[in-house]
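Input record (one chain):
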Amino acid sequence: MPSAFEDVVRRVIWELDRSGKLIPVDSLQNSSSFRPYSLLRRKPPSSWFWKPRYSSVNLSIKDILEPDVPVPDLERGSTIHICDNTDGKVQGKVEVAVPGQGKIAGGAAVSGSSSTSMNLCTLSVNPNTWDHMQQERRLRQPEHKILQELRSRRDDVYVVKEVVQIQQEVVVSCTRKLEGSGQCALPAAMCLKVCGQPWALPDPMTAAGVGEARPTSQGAGISRAGFFPDPSRRSHSSILDQNQSFPKAELATTNGKPVPSTQPKPMPITLNPEHSPEPVSIPQGDGEGHFSQENTVTIPAGSIIAFRVAQLVIDTDWSIFHFPDKKQRTFPPPSTGSQPQHTFSLSSVLGLIHERFRLLTDSVSEKWEITEDFQGLRTEVEAGSAELQKMERDLRQQLLLNLEKILCDPSALEDLEALLAQGLCGARQVKPLHGPADDILECLVLPSRMLVPELAAPVFYLLGALSALSETQQQLLAKLLDKGDLSTQLELVDHLLEQSTPWQKQSDVSLPPRLSESNWGEEAPSWTLLEECGLELQVGAPQIHWEPQAQGPTCALYASLALLSGLSRESC
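The corresponding structure, as predicted from the sequence alone:
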């Protein structure tokens, strides 16, 4: 479940801005990295359906410009006071009784509360300030080393132009309580004692073995069909057992002729009323338990909880784009020089894969076309998954094993994604990496160290989807991969994205019983994966409240689950 900081940030942004332009800070630790004039980086998206996260580069715009003079002052907005108190409880009971077989009853209650009160204000850069700075300042020469690195990685650079800041220290308190109880009552086990002495199983060849028994020195228990020996020899009675089989009768012979048994003649069984079974109380049981958790987080004054950005464009000079085009890049493409430059298009590669898959399977599907809806997302994912499933089983298992490892190492995941981007865009040899990232890379290169586009492109697409997820989601996916089954989570996200179309509108999506019976609740992996996407979930009536802002993270989650499941699936 989200941290107390994340939870309060989402609720505050919901009150301030529902357009999605305010970007929430994902953790208290990062709240100081998104101040006005700070530079951020973001990788170009590998798909239209999601956007990578912003990351700080620990630089301000003044660090890359000259002369080195302080940045202009900020504009402070009016103070906004927000008080948010939440208290809720959900409880339920169930009782199942079957005549003659007992009764089971249980109940559970979940409650939670949170309390937050804070004063906020906005700090922003006046739009005219950017014009003045462009006239008075130039790019520093030589170019800052971090800019050189970002240029080589083909990352885009943004500058923070507005923030939402907490004016006074805030204490956020969240409480969760779980209570449960249960009762059961089962039929009494009926026991009988044979008067006088224990009795052995009658010969099944006489009188069908009913109503007669031979005395024996061993204990004998009674079943509804007759008698059976008690192998434990610990008592003269036994709990009813309908599964016990009769032993096969054996007769002694001499020269092939039966010999009369020396055992006493079987005699009728009699039950002494004085030893008749005593009434036995019906076994009953009950239990109860509770769990309580309270989180308290102190947010220091001056912390940033949300921000807006503008794109920085660097060519011969620098400029700021407040409303950049989707194709706008920070750095211009490198000059081709004497060698032709290879231009990589992930969509084109996936399109070729899709077309080849269609021909191989004699499919009559329509021509490759990506629409900005769930069908378009499915088309992208199926194209990448089809190519990955053609890999040998051992190679796919190796990929899965190492993907599980780099999901717990965000820096390794980032380095591998950047290297694949460079290799696919530049059509050049790729250098080795270290650890699991290098093991993945070795599955995608030729002996010449050139990438195989048909393999590298789908993996690059998968890494882009994984990078768009939160760290909590990445670690949870690693645990699920270790267990080896993602089908339940994939089916749930598939249902959500299909039923919430069109994604631009709010809606409530109900879950069918097969998806909510055993995989729903605050402790379930699916719950955490979806909650981290910014969705509101309900327990009582299994339901998900869809928000347009959740489209990117949810689509990235779907692509991650689908491609990882495809790698683990047996080839057809």
